[in-house]
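Q: Given only this backbone (448 positions), what sequence would you predict?
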């Protein structure tokens, strides 16, 4: 197989580099972890051999994340929504309608969120040692602490790309190849060509903030999770956690100590067997499932009865009509849908929490210009979507959060805050609340 041609997909104002190779019956959109480089990947026989085997069972779409490799570099700190947009852009450019989405370690969080948000474009999930929270927490004790990550960043900044740095990385990521001089040389080039020290530090700090655990129950596509108990980078409990919370997920154990499975012949063969078997057993048709992860915005006008009395029936109707027209236009601008109006408010849905919050902020400002005080509640969760409506606990939670807001406020759930990592939206804690008809205590945040 010849080395594939590098192509570019447009994602917003950025260009995302990708390659297409293989002629299998399904598409596999393969996002590599951490630092990558589409051209250098083919210079290492073990990696090239791994992808050539995958090409026998799938049409592989291999891509570099924004900020690394051959994709645009000066990108700031991308959100998970940005990364999902990149996947959709690459799929569109490669003319892939539906695909198995591959995610390893840090890219697994994005892959899981993509599957929950766009099930109509996801045939299945193939995950290698996924991490769904970036830092240690009492209820997630197998992630590194913030101090550990910061110490790693500090050390990397001092000797980035040098032989001591490469040796330190290989001792963790591919200990079986530490004594292979050619492999060390190649890996050093991938690191130096794939990223800069500052970009790598920014990515590491962004990953620290990730927490997509709330989205796991919303994943309903076939999923396989590969783990390596001997891995020195990611503890196997991360894989166990995901497999236990994604319905029907398969968990496969890979031998050895290499985080890079393809670096070790035995581990590479085992992972390829598992991935080939997963592809072979995918259902031939898409499941009939209307469950999808949505960011829900509930909003209403404060003190509407008094305003209606002041303006009169016709004046109030005209004011409302103008407000709803502006709100529909803004929903379209932020790639969402104003599902329905509710007297003096509305319900809208979006495919990402950052877009939902920005929409709510924009509509609030429009309302203020019309002499209206708007309050809004935003929550991200699984919904049942019909042709004309959206229902589910997530809708109720957004409504209750809206009720807790005052005029001009946009309140959100913790899930919205957690999934907005990397955005310019700031959140202030507003404490936990009990909502009528909804179990548990819900942490709320003011979006500012």
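A: Predicted residues:
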């Amino acid at each position: 197989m010849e080395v594939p041609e590098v192509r570019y997909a447009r994602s917003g104002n950025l260009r995302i580099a990708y390659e297409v190779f293989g002629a299998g019956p399904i598409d596999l959109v393969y996002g590599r972890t951490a630092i990558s480089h589409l051209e250098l990947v083919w210079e290492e026989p073990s990696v090239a051999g791994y992808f050539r085997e995958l090409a026998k069972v799938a049409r592989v779409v291999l891509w570099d994340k924004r900020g690394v490799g051959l994709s645009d570099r000066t990108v700031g700190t991308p959100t998970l929504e940005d990364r999902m947009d990149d996947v959709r852009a690459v799929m569109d450019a490669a003319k892939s309608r539906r695909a198995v989405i591959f995610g390893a370690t840090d890219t697994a969080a994005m892959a899981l969120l993509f599957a929950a948000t766009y099930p109509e474009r996801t045939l299945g999930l193939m995950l290698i040692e996924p991490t769904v929270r970036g830092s240690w927490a009492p209820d997630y004790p197998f992630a590194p602490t913030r101090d550990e990550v910061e110490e790693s960043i500090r050390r990397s900044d001092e000797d980035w790309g040098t032989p001591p740095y490469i040796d330190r990385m290989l001792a963790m990521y591919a200990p079986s190849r530490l004594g292979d001089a050619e492999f060390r040389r190649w890996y050093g080039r991938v690191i130096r060509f794939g990223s800069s020290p500052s970009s790598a530090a920014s990515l590491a700090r962004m990953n620290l903030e990730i927490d997509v655990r709330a989205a796991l129950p919303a994943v309903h596509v076939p999923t396989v999770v590969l783990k390596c108990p001997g891995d020195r980078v990611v503890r196997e409990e991360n894989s166990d956690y995901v497999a236990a919370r994604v319905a029907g997920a398969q968990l496969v154990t890979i031998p050895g100590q290499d985080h890079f499975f393809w670096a070790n012949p035995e581990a590479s063969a085992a992972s390829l067997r598992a991935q080939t078997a997963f592809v072979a057993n995918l259902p031939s048709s898409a499941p009939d499932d209307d469950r999808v992860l949505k960011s829900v915005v509930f909003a209403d006008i404060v003190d509407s009865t008094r305003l209606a009395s002041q303006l009169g029936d016709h004046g109030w109707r005209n004011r409302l009509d103008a407000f709803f027209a502006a709100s529909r236009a803004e929903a379209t601008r932020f790639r969402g849908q104003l599902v329905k109006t509710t007297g003096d408010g509305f319900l809208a849905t979006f495919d990402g929490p950052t877009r939902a919050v920005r929409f709510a902020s924009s509509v609030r400002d429009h309302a203020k210009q019309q002499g209206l005080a708007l309050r809004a509640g935003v929550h991200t969760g699984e919904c049942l979507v019909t042709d004309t409506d959206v229902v589910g606990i997530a809708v109720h939670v957004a409504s209750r959060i809206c009720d807790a807001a005052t005029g001009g406020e946009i309140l959100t759930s913790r899930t919205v805050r957690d999934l907005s990592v990397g955005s310019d939206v700031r959140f202030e804690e507003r404490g936990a609340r009990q909502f009528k008809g909804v179990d548990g205590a819900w942490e709320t945040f003011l979006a500012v």
